Amino acid sequence: MAILLTNGNVYCDRGFQRTDLLISEGRSFVFEKPGLRHADRTIDCKGKLIIPGLADVHVHFREPGFSYKETIRTGSAAAAAGGYTCVCTMPNLNPAPSTKEGLQVQLNLIRRDSLIDIVPYGAITAEQDGRSRLSDMESLAPFVCAFTDDGRGVQSGARMEEAMRLAKSLHRMIVAHCEDESLLGGRAIHDGVYAKKLGVRGISSESEWRQVERDVELAAKTGCAYHVCHISTKETVEIIRQAKKSGVDVSCETGPHYLVLCDEELQDLGRFKMNPPIRSADDRDALREGLADGTIDMIATDHAPHSAEEKSRGILDSAFGVVGLETAFPVLYSRLVRQDGLITTEKLIDLMALAPRQRFPLPGGPITDGARADVTVIDPEASFVINPADFRSKGKATPFEGWEVQGKVLMTFRAGTPVYEVEQ
Ligand SMILES: NC(=O)N[C@@H](CC(=O)O)C(=O)O
Ligand SMILES: [Zn+2]
Ligand SMILES: [Zn+2]
């Protein structure tokens, strides 16, 4: 089926261009001048943004092992509804992708059930505990985007160094959830104003940045390409800024919630709990600065669904993790682009669609004539209120519940096939 998107603002190589886009036989065709051509369906996209399908290098789809929280089918439907055509799935699964056999279970489910491209991670350590022997990295390498033990930090520096040396020889990155468990200090929330208010000891910033500092040195020493997950503290931003200046092959991501919330806004609800925790206003501002100056390379949601029961025990006792795929674009577009003018729409698209594909080996990319049609259509003016009942995800816990936002995903195409279309 050929679909013609007319009069949209198409994000081409050199920014937005007012043009028509024909999606046919899985590919995009960009026309400079409108004219007659065959299409089975024509959609008027006047005033709409037509952008490369978004890519998220950090999601938890919970299958195999925890399908009561999310499945490949529900997770990929949520991704498509959020404008994503490609995601990387984290390895805290059962069986875990620490062996080829473990990974194969997930690969089979992806082939059967996914609506979009999913490129899994392989585990770093065999038991995903950051201490045990390395996973079967060699046999996993051809099938994974990179290696990570996300969910936990690699506690042993020696093990991390060994992993980096092997990953480098396999031409794969090491991706790290940085959390030194000996430095946590407290639990559940950031050690800041809200922890004081509740009278508890929170999680120190040091537990994150000390491990980033260690790993950056190991990356410099081994020459391994290294990427840091969900950075949340001002110290981490500065460590990565300096490491980049000195030529270390390092990149990082942060999540929407760290950019638009701080611990002064927390409420005693499970939907405000994730790891790392939402930090102080100073941390949030440093992350925004790091985003604007290029220290932070990309935005990843860390979409981490749990059951309603697991998120019902308040901020101190609920499970760590919030969903993000269906809110990331509108939240960031509304706040960072439209409200605050911190970044341009083009920069946001770079952070959410292009930069991930420059750093990770992922399908999709810029909209060019003849390229595979991984394309998202957005209405930048449409506003709506975030209501988790509308989510495709099984997970409903989001700190953005009730927010009024603008920038609505209307359609998502993966390889030319519509995988999401808004109900009109
Ligand atoms: N981010 C979270 O709060 N939770 C993640 C694990 C992780 O990303 O560290 C999960 O798997 O639930
Ligand atoms: Zn993590
Ligand atoms: Zn995660």
TrEMBL record:
Q: Which PANTHER family match?
A: ALLANTOINASE
Cofactor(s) of this protein = Zn(2+)
Which parts of the sequence bind Zn(2+) 2? 150, 177, 230
Give the catalysed reaction(s), semicolon-separated.
(S)-dihydroorotate + H2O = N-carbamoyl-L-aspartate + H(+)
Sorted alphabetically, the Gene Ontology BP terms of this entry are: 'de novo' UMP biosynthetic process; purine nucleobase catabolic process
Q: Where is the Dihydroorotase catalytic domain?
A: 47-235
Q: What is this protein called?
A: Dihydroorotase
Tell me how the cofactor is bound.
Binds 2 Zn(2+) ions per subunit.
InterPro entries recorded for this chain? DHOase (IPR004722), DHOase/Allantoinase_Hydrolase (IPR050138), DHOase_cat (IPR024403), Dihydroorotase_CS (IPR002195), Metal-dep_hydrolase_composite (IPR011059), Metal_Hydrolase (IPR032466)
Task: Give the family from UniProt.
Answer: Belongs to the metallo-dependent hydrolases superfamily. DHOase family. Class I DHOase subfamily.
Which residues bind Zn(2+) 1 per the record? 58, 60, 150, 302
> Where are the active-site residues found?
302
Pathway membership = Pyrimidine metabolism; UMP biosynthesis via de novo pathway; (S)-dihydroorotate from bicarbonate: step 3/3
Any one GO molecular-function label of the UniProt entry? allantoinase activity
**UniProt keyword annotations, A-Z:** Hydrolase, Metal-binding, Pyrimidine biosynthesis, Zinc
**What role does this protein play?**
Catalyzes the reversible cyclization of carbamoyl aspartate to dihydroorotate.
**Listed EC numbers:** 3.5.2.3
Residue positions binding substrate:
60-62, 92, 275, 306, 320-321
**Keyword GTP-binding on entry:** no
Group of enzyme by EC: hydrolase
One cellular component GO annotation, for this chain's record?
A: cytoplasm
